[in-house]
Amino acid sequence: MTFDVKNKTVLVTGANRGIGKAILEEAFRRGVAKVYAAVRNTDSASPLVAEHGERVVPIRVDLDDPKSITAAAATATDVDVVVNNAGVMKISSAIGDDAIETLQFEMNANVYGLIRVAQAFAPVLKANGGGVFAQLNSIASVKTFPDFATYCASKAASYSITQGLRGTLGAQGTHVVSVHPGPIQTDMGAAAGFGEIAASPSMVATATFDAIAKGRFHVWPDPMAEQVGAAYQSFAENIVEADMQESLA
C-alpha cells in the first residue's frame, strides 16, 4: 500500500526535538501541507512555529494522560498520517533495585501510550480514507541488551502491539509502519551513553517516509539497524509479515 504524503496532514508525537523534530522537517521536505506538533508542553514547539509558520500547529499530547490524547484526536480531525515517535527510556537491568518501577514507567508511555494513540486516531484515519500510522520502535524490540533490559521489554511489547495494529488498521485501509532505529543522536541517546556509535535522526526520518511511500512495514534506518534487519529479514518476511491465518485454523 503506497502512500504519497504531499499536501497531506501529519501528526508527530514528540515533535519538538530529536527524531520527532527530524520527522517534522522531513515531512515538509516531502511537501506535506501541515504538521501537528504533538508535545507535552505546547510552548516547546514555538521554535518550530517560528521557522515554519502556521503550517506547524502545536497540540498537547502526553502519553501518560489519556484525556490529552482523546482531546488531540477530537481537534486534529484532518490527520492523514500519525507518527507516534514519543517514548521514554531509563537504564535498568532485570535485577536492578528499581527494575519493576522502571518497567512500569516505560510500559506506561511506550506501550499503553501507543495503544491510547492508536485507539484515539484510528477512527480519524479511517474517516479520512485510511492514511498511515507509523510507530517508532527500536532494534531493542528484537534484541535485549542487559543494561537496558526493561526498556527492551517495553519496546518488544510495543513492537508486538504494532504487529497487531498492522492487521487491525489494515482492515480499514490504514498502512502501519514499524520503525526500528539503532543508537541515534538524541537527548535520550546521549543519556544512555551511545556517543560516537549514534546515527543522525535525519536517517530515521528519511527511512520512515521512504517506507510510507513504498508501503513497507519494517524500517531499519541506520547502519546498526541495517545489520539487525538483515539478520531478522527471513523471520520478518516469513512469519511477521506473512498471512498465517490458514495455518493457524
TrEMBL record:
Keywords assigned: Oxidoreductase
SUPFAM superfamilies: NAD(P)-binding Rossmann-fold domains
Pfam families for the chain: adh_short
Enzyme class: oxidoreductase
EC code(s) of this entry: 1.-.-.-
The organism's place on the tree of life at top rank: Bacteria
GO MF, one example: oxidoreductase activity
PROSITE patterns for the chain: ADH_SHORT (PS00061)
Record family assignment: Belongs to the short-chain dehydrogenases/reductases (SDR) family.
PANTHER family named in the record: NADPH-DEPENDENT 1-ACYLDIHYDROXYACETONE PHOSPHATE REDUCTASE (PTHR44169:SF6)
Protein name: Putative oxidoreductase
Species this chain originates from: Novipirellula galeiformis
